[in-house]
Amino acid sequence: MRVIDTVNNCDTTYCKTITTNCFKSSCIWKDKKPDFKVIDSCLGNNAVFIGYVLFRGNTNSTYTYQWTVNNVPDTKYKGNSLYSYITKNGTYTVCVRVKDTANNCDTTFCETFKITCLQACDWKSQKPKFEFSDSCFKSSAKIFAHLTFNGKYNTKYAYKWSINQNQTNSTSPYVVETFSKNGYYTFCVNVYDSVNNCDTNFCETIQIKCLSGCDWKSMKPNFYLTDSCNAKSLHSGIFFNGKSRTDLQYTWRLNGKVFNYNDNIVSQTISSNGGYTVCVTVYDSSKNCDTTFCESIKINCFKACNWKDRKPDLSVIDTCGRNINALSGIIYFNGKYRSDYIYKWTVNNTTLNYTGPSMYHNLNKNGTYFVCVNIKDTANNCDTTICKTVQVNCITSCNWKDRKAKLEVWDTCRNTCKEVFNRIDGWITFNNKVNTSYKYTWRINGTIVQKDWAFLLNPVSQNGKYTVCLTVHDTINNCDTSFCETVYMNCIQKCNWSRNMPKLYLKDSCSKNFTKIIGEVDFKECRKSSYLYKWTVNGTRLNYTGPAMLYDLKKNGTYTVCINVYDSVNRCDTTICDTLQVKCPTLGIGKSFQAIKTIIVYPNPTQGEIKFEWNGGAAKYQLSNQLGQILMEGEVNETVNVLNLKGYKPGVYGLRIIENNQVYVKSILLLE
Question: What is the pLDDT of residues 422-436, one digit of tens each?
Fold first, then answer.
């Protein structure tokens, strides 16, 4: 505080520090046990993000939520869940900002996804054609460029035209532009399909050279071309009116390939005999015009190869007789391999990957095949090409009709204690037999679900219409065919927890070495192998995933035990809870007690392996069948005991624990 005495014109200041601690501390979000999850799902030409955030397994209506996708707010969804559509492939970051208005604090959760499932347009199948026409006048040239699909204009697409990277005003399938100078002009058009949300670009370059400008004839050009075998080079130059013109620009080409810029006199190294054409394009930038001069020369001063004296012998045969459809080729010189040559093989003008004196090329149909091999002698720097024509008619084509194919598809639903599965099954036979030499590809609603097996076993999760298609490939004759059937699935049952009502059993075990809560869930009809379990005690998640659990006690009191049961086949769950009051003498109340001795067995029912725990003292165990025959026996471990029932017949077995002549029994159900 500052005090001013206006009469005496003086002042002073007093200060004091105080600490405030009456405000609430910031939120501890970790203690609220947030559960944030986002999944992506593709639907035809769209994809959707489905997200939610929970705290302690529940929604919290006192919080506010702000969802964003790639930093763009989604104003439609302001609660704890999100359902957002996207239309393009790419990388997306989904975030939710949660604000606790009561404590005035917030936090943000994010996940990143890469979407690749949206189908792009198949531009190639639409047969695009980019065409030009030009019209030249004395001082200008007019270019008409247009783009068609399947021979027609497609007005449903959006078009953006550019010339030499400069945008035009045209938004139609064609553009008309006028030019006043000769030169090269690149036309590009971006085509956008708004229905399938994809685009592509087409570009072509056209040269305008019809506009009048330079009078090259009056400049008396002098173009020459000579060879020098000693230097292994070509020499060329051009003069105008007997002089070099440094104000002009020059572009030199040898057999079509550019090798020099901006010199009116050039030299180029050569390495073999043959015909050579040298051209120079001269450009006058002041008048914006150009012209081209060319000369050809034949070189024969290099030492040439004499291929005839080497007696080349090219042999090409088909190998259909071995059930392998292919061409085999080999070439000899004077009856021997020449590994020092370089070879280039082609079949019907298609280059193969073989660079040696032999090749092997697979065939898939009969016909005429033109086989060539180019041989290069690197020592003498010369080459030659030898060709041979082969007629192939030994390949047997497929006749699927005579094979009497039969495709069968059906639905299979099992929802009992012994079996839980919902599938679409199928198989195919040829002449009433399964052919294992074919390759098979199964598709359901267009998606590949199984390969290389004539039988289909495909799980499904919901009723509906399914189109099942099978592509069969005959690898020997290299041909294939496809078969399709439609099946209507309506046998999948929804969850009915009231019918198979789960019941939770709880008790405490109080002993010096075993002070625990023992929990087990049972069902009115049966315990299905498709069930998954989550246990919590006073809101704390346990590591037990079976129908039974043990919880270590630290103190007496009231304990709330909950179990969540999830049916993984029908994708539904239920949660039941119960409260247990614990008063164990070993935890500080009373002086004497009688411990409850219990056998915990899980999983039960089982399809093979079981685990059991015993809270008593030293004991022995026996496993017997319904006839009383002892199948296994041994000492009981202090921790977890494991028994493997695989190999025994399905049915009911008895597990007996023997302690001081006292017998404790637990029944075990073994499934198929």
Answer: 788 899 998 988 888
